[in-house]
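re the bet — no i am not wrong, look at it urself. input seq straight from the record:
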Amino acid sequence: MSTTTNHADAGLVLSPAGHRRDVPPVATPRRGEPAAVAVDLGSGQARLWVDGKGIRVAPSTGEALSRPAPLVRRGRIVDAAGCVSLLTRLLHRFPQALPVGPVVVACQPVLAAPADQDAIRRVVTAVFAPSRVLLINTVRAAAIGSGAAAGVLLVVDVGAQLTEVAVVVDGRVAAARRAEMGTHDPTSGDAPRLLAGIAARLVADIGGNPRMRRLTAAALARGVIVVGDGATMPELTSRLAANLRVPVRPACSPRLAALSGAGLAATAVCRHPATAAA
């Protein structure tokens, strides 16, 4: 596992951090603005937010489409056609049609390979015919969505099949690690203990890099924020606090934190298009 340089979302400049929101803002787009859309295609659930319309959620395990195989595995799209069908169904659950040419911000795992990024872009393009598609690392989106992106922050995202850890500096990922293990994985032992141990080792791995030592220490001094499925497990957060010997707190609405941050990003791009890279 290696440090991420966050190329995919390096051009996104968002609204000021520290403005707490549990879900993305719901507001009718201004006249002449494209619609803002956020997508979080997780290994356990697909989540869709459309500005002014709200949120729709469905399993990404294939059961929503009566398919035996998963659509997303370990954060990677394995059934692109299925993902297109699933997001199209979620989109059609909204009472009104989406305006033409929306701006879509889609979440991606940290350290996602270029091929995985391309797969996300192709799926989103097929569903929304967007005027613009931007990708944002899930941990960065979660930091923004939880209203805690200002300064140095350590984010732990324990999802269905991935555990991701990142040091975020003023809303930018400075370093990250991930492990292919999550809350939906069968284990022979205690899942909260196992996942807390994995997260603690990922934190130690980041801090073991001499260039990241001071930033990691500063982030730990502030405390750790946990998002994803794991944040709903009190035993996991308490064990992680014991392992790291620092305060650990779950985000408000932890399963929606990344979607919230992606929604804020999409809204910012719609209102200030010059703030994002092409």
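see?? The radius of gyration is 18 Å. told u. also The longest helix spans residues 191-207. so pay up
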